[in-house]
Amino acid sequence: MAGFGLKVKISAYALPMLAIAIVLVFQKNKYLRGAGFVLAGLGFLFLGIHHMKEGFEAFKDQFDLTRFAMTGLLGLVVYTLIGAAATVVMQSSHATMALIITALAAGQISCENALALAIGANIGTTITAIIGAMTANYQGKRLALAHLMFNVVTAGVALIFIGPIRMSVSCPPVWALPTPTPR
User: Fold this and answer.
1) pLDDT-based confidence at residue 175 (cuts at 50, 70, 90)
2) Rounded to whole angstroms, how far apart are CA atoms 131 and 134?
3) Which ranges of 11-137 does DSSP label H, i.e. alpha helix?
4) How far apart are the first and last CA of the chain?
5) Cα–Cα–Cα angle for 111, 90, 177, nearest 5°?
6) Does 43 lie in the same domain as 76?
7) pLDDT for 131-162, tens place per residue?
8) Which of 4, 116, 168, 172 could form a Cys-Cys staple with 79, CB 3.0–4.6 A?
9) Residue 105's closest CA among 3, 6, 1, 2?
């Protein structure tokens, strides 16, 4: 998504991939069957991204999420917590990032809030290790705690340096964005 952007119509590739995947999944050769499963996963991922993009585009006409854009420290904290919560619920930072990129491309969230959401997604991804460590031995629990601490500390550092990060990726501040016109 980040490499090609959302201008490429990846849904055009999804259905042929799924058709080929169906044929490969029913093969006796385990390598062909495995390739079919991989192709099916990619096809469904591309189709899902297409539907998210279409949903945000339709949603944009009805409701403008940029009205909820928050600046300053409060905005960073709130959107970081939202990103972490979304990742905990979806159990996938990749899915959260796909949503963030799609919403940003549709103009539904500001760039600064998207950066905070991405930082929060990095924190939220530790829930998988924490859940896995619940039945682990002492060393596994320590490793999960270290993973959580590392991600929280790196998120804190990223939030402290959010200004230079925002400038390095050419992200305009919220106050420089055009104000949405009421529909």
Assistant:
1) very low
2) 5
3) 11-25, 30-62, 72-90, 93-105, 111-124, 126-133
4) 30
5) 10
6) no
7) 888 888 989 889 999 999 999 999 999 989 88
8) 116
9) 6
